[in-house]
UniProtKB/TrEMBL annotation:
It holds the Pfam family Kinesin. The lineage of its organism: Eukaryota, Sar, Alveolata, Dinophyceae, Suessiales. Residues 89-455 form the Kinesin motor domain. ATP binds at G159, Q160, T161, A162, S163, G164, K165, T166. SMART domains: KISc. Gene3D superfamilies: Kinesin motor domain. Keywords: ATP-binding, Coiled coil, Motor protein, Nucleotide-binding. Signal peptide: none annotated. This is Kinesin-like protein KIF27. PROSITE patterns: KINESIN_MOTOR_2 (PS50067). It comes from the Eukaryota. SUPFAM superfamilies: P-loop containing nucleoside triphosphate hydrolases. Residues 464-494 form a coiled coil.
Length: 697
């Protein structure tokens, strides 16, 4: 696939609410203004609006005499023929990628195709430079304590190929230093220390290990040269593959276990099993594990005094370590490069024919990939079914109506059934790569990890704030690297040999050509080449993060300065006032009527068109809505009189409502009556004049 095609395929259009967050945070405007800016930018890129308008982003106030039909058209419009922009190019805001790993927040900020900016939240997050001891202390040690206390535990490592699963679980191959050891050697070392202490206190302890590999429906024992589990057993199909169906059962029953007495024995078993693994080089990983591997620790402990009675009272527990094969795409791993057709036909004539053995040998890597992906797909189905059962159980669905969990779909899920759905404590570690080339696989891994975490309520965080935090963190890392580079880097003079071809002096380019070697001294910076590569990667990530927020710079100068210039001297900051705020309306509530000015406005609203309004209230502008400070004094006097009447009725015990509630009920009754019969206004006003004792001039 070409680079441009991959760029288009990974292109992401951010949702509008995320764009609004970014614009508001950078320019300090409201949501409505941010939407307006975004829309103007999109239209400008498509060639439909002017790049610069003399009026800025503010629209002119439409006065009553404003004639929009005869307004002079803007002559600075972009002609689409002059500069055409593809719609797809305009819409793409970012690319699928992981933007930031935030250990303190236990989250990963990424750009996804479906939701744009997304914060993946987990229990723990470790950056790419986290040391192995820290991962063990923070993630696995608690499970080791559970295992020693008699509770089964499991650690399942999931991720794409070449993302570091085997390194996390076992460490580098061979005799690794203590700092580089993975979770399995560290766990076994701590368990053996506990076994020694227990033995010194009179406990009988038996620790054993199994190391198997799952390839499709085949279970192989890595501690016995990769022999298929169940074969070569007396009386049990010694030379056939029928035992593939029950291979996992042999593992769970303990037929593949080796007893362990010391850490040296364990290290020897791990090296022996590692050498028997299926491995092959692919385009994505030079040492790709071509199957799922599971290491199982079994622990039994009992008191010695019960051995003679035949009742051990043993405490049993298992610890599963699943190093899953990496998910991969054939188009990227190139494992199908050596495949050949069974029969090659050219021009209707058969050119070559392969035997079935040779045909399958060329497709071995493809079969390995298919088996790996099938096991991972079965694991995903089991996880989804378990989550669905958990959710339905919380909703009160009876146990017999809960959905079936498909453990039987693969040997992997059958072997890990206790770890996935049993009583075992399970930790799932997912490994991803920051390489943007494999961003899609990394995002799929993050989604799987988020599903495993059983997040019931997604965090609707401020993605714009997450970008600011990520930028600050990367800036600190860049400054630290620059200090290291300044300390380690030095100038070094190197002699470069350069070959020159020229004519003899004075020949002016004619005649015999002479070749000579010229040595040129050159000064170069050396000593911090690795740090320079790390700095380049950080600067690239910083540019991606800034690209999400700096796209707003296309709006021109800072919005705050534009707003200050356009609204200079305005008391309301240029936002204007709601014309409905000072008038009585259907939205007016009882508490509003506690203010007599609101009641005066309501009286004018109902009775300003009556024949007696001018004589009673001094009404002169019946057809015009007035502000509260312009309402004639007669309405205010009527409102004050109505409050006095309410106070008298309250004192006499004839009224229990508040003043605001009483006036709201009365205005509601007037509205309903006038809606039915508009001619009843005059009669209602006459009744109000008599009730309040108003004078008619």
């Amino acid at each position: 696939m070409a680079t441009s095609d991959m760029a288009e395929e990974d292109g992401v259009v951010l949702p509008l609410h995320q764009k609004v967050q970014l614009v508001r945070r950078q320019l300090g405007c409201t949501s409505k203004e941010a939407v307006s800016l975004i829309m103007q930018k999109q239209q400008r890129l498509k060639g439909k609006v002017a790049i610069e308008s003399s009026e800025g982003i503010f629209q002119p106030c439409l006065s009553p005499g404003y004639d929009k039909e005869n307004r002079q058209q803007n002559t600075d419009m972009i002609m689409t023929n002059e500069k055409k922009v593809e719609i797809d190019e305009v819409n793409i805001d970012a690319r699928c990628s992981i933007l930031s790993v935030q250990e303190e927040k236990a989250s990963v900020l990424a750009v996804t195709k479906n939701s744009g900016l997304h914060d993946f939240a987990f229990d723990k997050v470790f950056a790419e430079r986290t040391l192995q001891p820290h991962v063990y202390e923070e993630a696995a040690r608690r499970l080791v304590m559970e295992f020693l206390n008699g509770t089964s535990a499991s650690i399942i490592c999931y991720g794409q190929t070449a993302s570091g699963k085997t390194h996390t679980m076992f460490g580098p191959p061979g005799q690794a230093s203590e700092e580089l050891q993975g979770l399995v050697p560290r766990t076994c070392a701590e368990v053996l220390q506990a076994v020694e202490r227990w033995s010194s206190r009179g406990l009988q302890v038996q620790l054993s290990a199994s190391y198997v590999e799952l390839f499709g429906s085949e279970v192989s024992d890595l501690l016995r040269e990769g022999r298929v589990v169940g074969q070569h057993r007396e009386g049990r199909y010694s030379a056939v593959r029928a035992t593939d169906r029950v291979g996992h059962r042999y593992v769970l029953d303990g037929h593949t276990e080796w007893h362990i007495q010391s850490l040296e024995e364990l290290q020897e078993l791990l090296e022996h099993g590692d050498a028997a693994k299926r491995r092959a080089a692919t385009a994505m990983n030079e040492r790709s594990t071509r199957a799922h591997t599971v290491f199982v620790l079994s622990l039994q402990a009992w008191f010695a005094q019960y051995v003679t009675s035949g009742d051990k009272h043993a405490r049993q527990s298992r610890f599963y370590f699943a190093d899953l094969g990496g998910s991969e795409q054939l188009s990227k791993s190139k494992v199908d490069a050596e495949t050949k057709a069974k029969v090659l036909v050219v021009g209707g004539e058969e050119q070559s024919r392969l035997s079935w053995q040779e045909y399958n040998r060329h497709r071995q890597r493809v079969y390995e990939t298919l088996n790996i992906n099938k096991g991972l797909f079965s694991l995903k189905r089991v996880i989804e079914a378990l989550h669905q059962r958990c959710r339905m159980a919380q909703e009160g669905v009876p146990s017999h109506a809960l959905p079936y969990v498909p453990y039987q779909d693969s040997k992997l899920t059958m072997l890990l059934q206790e770890a996935l759905g049993g009583s075992a404590r399970t930790l799932i570690i997912t490994t991803v790569t920051m390489d943007p080339t494999h961003a899609e696989e990394s995002l799929q891994t993050l989604r799987f990890a988020e599903t495993c975490a059983q997040v019931q309520k997604r965090r609707e965080g401020d993605q714009a704030a997450s970008i600011i935090v990520a930028l600050d963190k990367i800036e600190q890392e860049i400054q630290a690297l620059q200090q290291v580079i300044a300390r380690k880097e030095r100038w070094e003079t190197r002699l470069l040999r350069r070959q020159d071809r020229d004519t003899v002096a004075g020949a002016f380019g004619e005649g015999t050509m002479v070749e000579r070697i010229e040595v040129v001294p050159t000064s170069v910076l050396v000593g911090a080449e690795v740090e320079r590569e790390q700095l380049e990667a950080l600067l690239h990530r910083q540019a991606e993060l800034k690209g999400l927020s700096s796209g707003i710079s296309a709006f021109g100068k800072d919005y705050r300065s534009m707003r200050d210039e356009a609204t200079k001297g305005a008391v309301d900051g240029g936002r204007g006032e709601d014309f409905r705020a000072g008038h009585f309306s259907s939205r007016t509530k009882a508490k509003d009527f506690e203010d007599e000015a609101v009641l005066a406005d309501a009286l004018r609203f109902f009775f300003r068109s009556c024949q007696q309004a001018e004589a009673v209230f001094g009404e002169l502008k019946a057809r015009t809505r007035l502000q509260r400070n312009e309402i004639p004094e007669g309405y205010h006097k009527a409102a004050k009189t109505m409050r006095q009447l309410w106070e008298d009725q309250l004192a006499q015990g004839h009224e229990t409502r508040s003043f605001g509630k009483a006036m709201l009920d009365r205005c509601t009754a007037w509205r309903a009556a006038f809606k039915v019969d508009t001619s009843s206004r005059d009669a209602a006003l006459s009744k109000l004049i008599h009730e309040c004792g108003l004078q008619v001039e």
